[in-house]
Structure formats: structure tokens, C-alpha cells
Amino acid sequence: MKNNTSEPPGRQTGLKLARRTSVINLPKDSQIATAISPAMHAPVVVPVSGEVVYHSVEAMVHSDRPVLPVHCLRPSTIVSTAKWFLRQFPGEVMYAVKTNPDPRVLRYLAHAGVKHFDVASIVEVKQVADTLPDAKMYFMHPVKSREAIASAYFEYGVRDFSLDSHEELNKILEVTHGATDLNLYVRLAMANENAAFSLAGKFGVSMEDAPALILAARAASAKLGICFHVGSQCMDPQAYGRAVQHVVDLLDKTGVKLDILDIGGGFPSIYPGLMPPALPSYMKAIKKTLKSHPQLSACKIVCEPGRALVAEGGSVVVRVELRKGNMLYINDGTYGSLFDAGHPGFVYPVKAIRPEGQGKEKLSPEVAEFGFFGPTCDSLDTMKGPFHLPKDIAEGDWIEIGQLGSYGATMRTNFNGFYSDATVEVADKPLLSIFGVN
């Protein structure tokens, strides 16, 4: 990703220091070499990727004193999370690229063993193809332009497409000239009552209309798939079992042979005040459901995690520009990386950082509740929180906002001229972890 901002202060100095520091590699099975400098505030260069890695987010702030928001990626966290999914899920793990399409994130996942990628636009198709030429891509957006279908099929070799209407099925067949090597996935509409974000309503064929579409897709497919989505940040592991039961009912009704069952995403991460059940309970529920339906024994099983794979693997560092009471004006907001903290009202874990040498006392151990205003002129650029921070936080302090490896950097806009794509890698642990790694 090209950096459109100037180098953060101190970055070039850090690179020079890195050449003189010793490097400690993680165990080989991690496949990602992070490094720790004996000088805790100095960045080091990773021998595998060549990227600069800071010992911690706090070390980056001490070293660089960034004036713009900085996105911090945790390679080892993303790799270990991906490996957990690959071990625990009873099928193929397909990363939902929209969650975070940063080429570095794609490479971390590939290092961990993820080979399948859910793409939703021709731009994402190109991003994956350019970064990971051997990756298998699935075009899982149910509504695509003819140009996108043609480019994906003829230029990038994509053969897997989702759809939720006869019109989309006909469009795919027309654009590919009646290709006989298509793997077509019929997307079903599912209730999302147990999800933080409902994805019901926009996509998915109804249970009443699904049989005819399934039969038509079966006739046109080399391999037939059925897919669904139980909603983003699903809080109920049993939601997958209920959705699979609908699939089985449709198979019984139509009598078709199903080749692929894609149970979608929805796997949750952890946020303050939003504690989902343990992730192993989701895997247990899915395995139990699949075992109870012999009709699915010959099917390839696929899932599409996004948030749960990468949320913990990223955070954003912002600076406080002004304090008014318990509202903090920060240099990122809902038009930047903090969209979900706005209207959806997500509360993220936060950590205040006040480097030494600023002429201020250390931050108070006492905390208070704060809200945020973003940098734009729009009053909608508001994040009510509450975010728990030291009661004496002030202008010039920095805040690390966690769980933004997903739906953070990918949501940025240039509105009002406020934008930063400054990105660094860090070797510390996330502020919160559903995997218990912090």
C-alpha cells in the first residue's frame, strides 16, 4: 500500500538504528519473523519481510510522536488466529477480503496457510491476484456488473460465483458464454436476529423462491453450492445450525446433489460490553450440525471469516487535539477508521499513551468515561463510547484504539481532507483477545 503521507517523525532515524540492533526471531512454526530491539523504543527491521517492526504501539509513539493517525498491524496475532481457524474449522477457511484488503494482511494469512479468498469486487480480485498469484478466489457478491464478471472469469480465472436471483444467474451465463466450468452458489436469505449487524434484507433468495433457483443453478453448474450469512458479529453459535437445517430442508425438497456448503462469516470478535460465547463453542455447534445431517457428508464445507480473523491484528493510534469536558477531539473519526464507533455505536478497547519528556506528569491511574469527536466539520463525526481513559487525558496525548484490524483502515475516506494511510507493524499483543493471547 503506497503511503500518501509524509514519513512519521523519527521514522528514518529508526531505520538507521535498526541496522545496529540484534534481532530475535519467533519460533519457526510462526512463519512470520517479528523482532524485538534491546532498545525498547527503537524499531527494528524484520529479516523476512523487510518491514520495520516496533516492539509495541507505545514504543512507536515514543519513537515517532506521530501527528497523523497510524494503523498498527500485528503479524503474529493474525497468523496465530488464522492457524486456529484452520485447525478448528471442519473445512476450507475463506478470508473475507473486504474486512481488510491490505496486501500485508493478505500475506500474513497466506503465511498461516489460508489459500481461499472471498472477493466482492473486481478491485478485490485484482488485489488478491497481484499479492497472492496462487490464491483461489470466490466472487461471493450476489450482484455483480457484467464487466466485473467478464474480467474475473476471463482475465483472472475465477470460476466460483454467488447469486440470489434468476436474473443474476442468466447474467453470469451470458457473460461467460454459457461456460460449463462454473461453480455457482445460491445465496439464501437468513434471519439475523442474533447478530450485531443484520445482513438480512439486501441479499438472499427467500425460502419460498429458493427451490426453483437451486434447480436452475444446478443445471448450469459444474459444482453447485449454497451459501448464507447469519449476520456480522453473530452472538449465537446455534444460528449456524438453524441455517444449515434450512439448507437440508431445501435439499430434501428439491432432491438436488449439493457439492459445496458455504456457511458464510459472522464469527465474532470481542469488544468492551460485547462479549460473545467462546469461539470453540461455534466450532462445536457447526461440527455437531454437520454430523447430524448425512446429506452433507459428501459436501465440501467452507466458511468466510473476516472480523474474527483480523480484528485483533490491528489498532489505530490517534492524537488528542482538544478536550472539552469529557469529549475528546481526536484526529481520526467516523469518516476514517472509526466508522463502526459512530452510527453502529461499537465501543472499542482503548489505551492512553503519554510519552516521557512532554512536560506533563504521568497519566492518572483513575479513569473516566469519554466520548470522541472526529476531525471533520460534520457533527455526525461523533463516537459516544463510553471509552474509559485516564481522567487527566489532555491535548497532545495519544490513544491506541484496538480491534481495528477489521473494518478500520478499509473504511477510510478523504472527506474534508483528513486521511492517513501511515501503517507500521508492532510485536506486542492486542488490547483484547477472544483467543486469550493478551
List keywords for this structure.
438 residues; alpha/beta; Lyase, Ornithine Decarboxylase, Chain A, domain 1; 2 domains; 10-stranded mixed sheet; 8-stranded parallel β-barrel; disordered N terminus
Short description:
This protein has 438 residues and is α/β, with parallel strands linked by helices. The chain has eleven helices and 20 strands.
Explain what the structure shows.
- The protein is α/β, with parallel strands linked by helices and 438 residues long.
- It has two domains: 12-75 and 311-426, Lyase, Ornithine Decarboxylase, Chain A, domain 1 (Beta Barrel), CATH 2.40.37; 76-310, Alanine racemase (TIM Barrel, Alpha-Beta Barrel), CATH 3.20.20.
- The chain has eleven helices and 20 strands.
- The chain has helices at 11-18, 57-64, 75-88, 103-112, 122-131, 146-155, 166-175, 210-220, 238-254, 279-291, 307-310, and strands at residues 44-45, 52-54, 70-73, 92-96, 116-119, 136-139, 160-163, 183-187, 195-197, 223-227, 232-234, 260-262, 300-303, 314-324, 327-330, 350-353, 367-373, 382-390, 398-401, 423-426.
- The strands form three sheets. Strands 1, 2, 3, 14, 15, 16, 17, 18, 19 and 20 form a ten-stranded mixed sheet that branches. An eight-stranded parallel barrel has the order 4-5-6-7-8-10-12-13. A two-stranded antiparallel sheet has the order 9-11.
- Helix 8 (210-220) packs across helix 9 and helix 9 (238-254) packs parallel to helix 10 (279-291).
- The radius of gyration is 23 Å and the shape is elongated.
- The model is unreliable at 1-49 (pLDDT under 50).
